[in-house]
Amino acid sequence: MSTPSSERPAPEQPAPAQSADAPQPPVPPTRVPDRTAILAAVVAVAMLFGLWGVWRVLSPSRSPTGQIEDSRREARGQQRELEQLQQRVATLTRSDQISRDANRDLQSTLAERDEEIAGLRADVAFYERLVGSTAQRRGLTVHALKLQPQNNTAWHFTTTLTQNLNRGAVSTGQLSLTLEGTRGGKLEKLAWADLRQQPNAPGLAYSFKYFQQVEGDIFLPEGFTPVRVSVRLVPRAGAPIEESFTWADATRDIAPATAPPAQ
Questions:
Q1: How far apart are CA 228 and CA 225, in angstroms?
Q2: Which of these CATH numbers, 3.40.640.10, 2.60.40.150, 2.60.40.10, 2.40.50.200, describes 141-250?
């Protein structure tokens, strides 16, 4: 059934056109962010970063256990370095001691060599005086006398006898000593028997062609101060020979010219 015309909707009428001069509706303004809020946000972020950096700097980077382990490793390293330095010191000290000992031994050896050279030179001079082409011909004589203390009363003596007058001839005989000195403010002379502390003590025998060293011991009584010592030679053939030396000369530290064993 058709709808009555009175109930039909009226057709839409187009909106009347607005003229250019008609007022436009207001446009809502664009919302601009607040600058203060942005600045505050930036400051807050900067503060957060600053606090984070401070925390990284001030806060321990390792746990206490890690720090203890690092300290132990450092202590072990220092101990090893200390032991190495101590070993080097010990090595250098030992090397220095060895050098000192070697230098001391060398100096001692050089001193011994100097003594040997001096002795050899003295021997050469002795031989030249005795058997050289220009040597003076002399008969039996006491070339030197040396006395060395053994204790308070005992003395060891060494005499060097020479002769080059009768070449090839053998000189034989006996040797004895006598001492002159003082005791208790008085002059006194000690015979060979007194010095040997033996009644009728025989002299020491000698026998040589050119030279010989004769050695023996004598004993001085308590309180005796020697001044002069005499060596008496009694050859098998010929008159006795006597040579005197002051006690100071006979007891000097400088050794007289020595000679090899009897020839």
A1: 10
A2: 2.60.40.150
Contact (CB, 8 A) for 135 and 164: yes
Say if residues 214 and 234 touch (Cβ distance below 8 Å).
no
Distance CA 121, CA 250 (A): 21
Q: 213: which 2 tokens?
A: 């060293």
> Buried b vs exposed e over 208-224: b needs ≥16 C-beta within 10 Å?
bebbbbbebebebeeee
Distance of alpha carbon 247 from alpha carbon 145, whole angstroms: 10
* Torsion angles phi and psi, residue 240, rounded to 5: -60, 150
**SS3 for 187?**
strand
DSSP line for 76-88: HHHHHHHHHHHHH
| Tens digits of pLDDT across the chain (263 residues) | 444 444 555 555 555 555 545 555 555 555 555 677 777 777 787 777 677 666 665 555 555 676 788 788 888 888 898 999 999 999 999 889 999 899 999 999 999 889 888 877 877 776 666 666 565 677 888 989 999 999 888 999 999 998 877 777 889 999 999 999 999 889 999 999 999 998 989 999 999 988 899 999 999 999 999 999 999 999 988 899 999 999 999 998 644 444 444 44
Distance in Å from the first CA to the final CA of the chain: 188
Nearest to 138 by CA among 171, 176, 177: 171
